[in-house]
Design brief:
The protein contains 14 helices and 15 strands. By secondary structure, the protein is an alpha/beta fold. It has 3 domains: 226 residues, Spore Coat Polysaccharide Biosynthesis Protein SpsA, Chain A (Alpha-Beta Complex); 54 residues; 98 residues, NAD(P)-binding Rossmann-like Domain (Rossmann fold, 3-Layer(aba) Sandwich), CATH 3.40.50. Strands 1, 2, 3, 4, 5, 6, 7, 8 and 9 form a 9-stranded mixed sheet that branches. Strands 13-12-11-10-14-15 form a 6-stranded mixed sheet, with helices on one face. The chain is globular, with a radius of gyration of 22 Å. The model has no long low-confidence stretch (mean pLDDT 85).
Length: 398
């Protein structure tokens, strides 16, 4: 038996997966571990990359996209760790995260499952990393917007537990499957993930079952990860909104059907589908407003690379400058130079880069994953701390 079994389910996110594995190896130095990557039939070369660069990873290749729960269960059945970590491929794990999580479990015998602080790349908290179970009142508060109006209220803010301080260690109802550590005894008692959940909901269902048999679930913000969120689902061809609300309906049907005798289950389901309908209307509006000038939100891209040829990079990205989108410039992180159509500028320090990003109203930064190290990516993310920027990792050949 090893100390930690790390399980990643991946689908067509080779660039993110590689950086995630690098961060996991750095964070797990000195830990007796095993690492599983379960690939759901990627076509982007993910499996080849693992075999070439991470030879001791246990690679499991599925012949089709079987979903998150089924894929995790394949590795869970083969795992041997005292603790098991489910982590997404589009994450960057901090160097101290795994050691701190193991220490927390070792000193919290009532802890059945725990998650750390999960951050967006702009360092804001991803609210889904700590949640309440979607009881009728909690769901109602979320549906009608009371949770947004009164986030610090314990009655209305239960959906994302927004009344808790972000740095407060707390027992919670549920944590996110993007980073979820579970004790071996819990797995043996509660069983595997429910495979009826394809993409969402399996984490909250697992937490519900864990809590039901008496274990506590903790939010542990003494360490953190960055989660780029949704990179696999974008490539899946699955209607993620539909799948999310379908999963919520499944959860309510499974766990609340016989619990609320005086609170009709159809009312909760109605609320879920009202939210789903509003989500669909939002998508339709976005689709039809894309060509209306007042609603156009063009991407202003900064390309970050290290040593590749600037001219080749510039040519490569000309084909994505469609409509209102544009490349404002190219930053060579090794030479600290910023290049645009007019000039090449040598930057004296990191503050200059942030100034360039703000002046040029950059809202998307594209890293050449083959060329830019994990440390360089983190350096840029830290420089842009607090700025609302989308980050993309792409291969050199698009």
């Amino acid at each position: 038996m090893c100390d930690l079994s790390i399980i990643i389910v991946s689908y067509n996110v080779k660039e993110y997966l590689e950086k995630a594995l690098i961060s996991i190896y750095e964070a797990s130095e000195g830990i007796n571990k095993e690492i599983f990557v379960v690939d759901n039939n990627s076509y982007d070369g993910s499996c080849g990359m693992i075999k070439e660069k991470f030879k001791d990873v246990i690679s499991i290749e599925n012949s089709q996209n079987i979903g998150f729960s089924k894929a995790n269960n394949i590795a869970l059945k083969r795992s041997s760790g005292r603790y098991i970590l489910l982590v997404n491929p589009d994450t960057i794990v901090s160097r101290d995260t795994l050691l701190k999580m193991i220490y927390f479990f070792d000193n919290k015998p009532d802890c059945g499952a725990a998650g750390c602080k999960v951050l967006n790349p702009d360092k804001s908290l991803q609210l889904a990393c700590r949640r309440g179970f979607p009881s009728p009142f909690t769901s109602f508060s979320k549906i009608v917007g009371l949770s947004k109006l009164f986030p610090k209220n314990k009655f209305f803010g239960r959906y994302n537990l927004t009344y808790l301080e972000p740095d407060q260690i707390s027992p919670v109802d549920a944590i996110s499957g993007s980073f979820m550590m579970v004790r071996r005894e819990v797995l043996e008692q509660v069983g595997y993930l429910d495979e009826d959940f394809f993409l969402y909901g399996e984490d909250i269902d697992w937490c519900y079952r864990i809590a039901k048999i008496g274990w506590k679930i903790y939010y542990y913000p003494e360490t953190e990860i960055i989660h780029f969120k949704g990179r696999s689902s974008k490539k899946s061809g699955v209607d993620t909104g539909k799948e999310f609300y379908k999963s919520m309906g499944l959860f309510v049907e499974k766990h609340f059907k016989n619990r609320y005798l005086f609170y009709p289950l159809w009312f909760v389901k109605l609320g879920i589908w009202i939210r789903a309908g509003l989500f669909l209307l939002g998508k339709i509006f976005k689709l039809f407003s894309i060509n209306i000038p007042i609603f156009k939100n063009g991407k202003r891209r900064l390309i970050v690379f290290s040593n590749n040829n600037v001219t080749e990079i510039d040519k490569t990205f000309k084909n994505i400058n469609s409509g209102n989108n544009t490349v404002v410039g190219i930053f060579n992180i090794s030479k600290k130079t910023f290049v645009n159509e007019k000039e090449t500028e040598k930057l004296e320090n990191e503050d200059y880069l942030r100034n360039i990003i703000e002046v040029n109203k950059v809202n998307e930064i594209i890293f050449y994953s083959d060329d830019v190290s994990l440390n360089d990516i983190m350096k840029i993310i830290n420089i842009c701390n607090g700025l609302k920027i989308n980050y993309e990792l792409v291969p050199y050949k698009i």
